[in-house]
Design goal:
There is one protein chain. The protein is mainly alpha-helical. The protein has a domain at about 65-100. Helices cover about 50% and strands about 0% of the residues. Helix 2 (about 70-80) packs across helix 3. The N and C termini lie far apart (about 90 Å).
């Protein structure tokens, strides 16, 4: 037990001493000490825009692209089939549906 305490205290002393000694390394004679470069500029801090209580937010709504006639026919045929229409009724429904959209 006594040996363990001695070894532990030596390891602790060496560990604490190495941190202080390693920071004080002196370069050999004849080698110039190179200065460190200047620090980089800090990040730009900008204040966020806070919306006002009485103003409505401005939004730029852009309508989506219009579907082609082929897309309209396909959608109407699928709706007619989902409704349970037969082939003849489905064709008539798709024509009327695609022309009204």
């Amino acid at each position: 037990m006594r040996r363990f305490l001695i070894v532990g205290s030596l390891v602790t002393a060496v560990a604490l001493g190495v941190g202080r000694v390693s920071a004080q390394i002196i370069p050999p004679a004849g080698r110039p000490i190179i200065p460190s470069p200047p620090p980089l500029p800090g990040p730009k801090i900008q204040v966020p825009v806070v919306p006002k209580m009485d103003e409505l937010p401005s939004r730029n709504y852009v309508p989506g692209p219009r579907p082609s006639f082929s897309d309209k026919i396909t959608t109407c045929l699928e709706e007619g089939a989902a409704a349970g229409l037969g082939p003849a009724d489905r064709a008539a429904y798709a024509r009327a549906c695609a022309n009204s959209r």
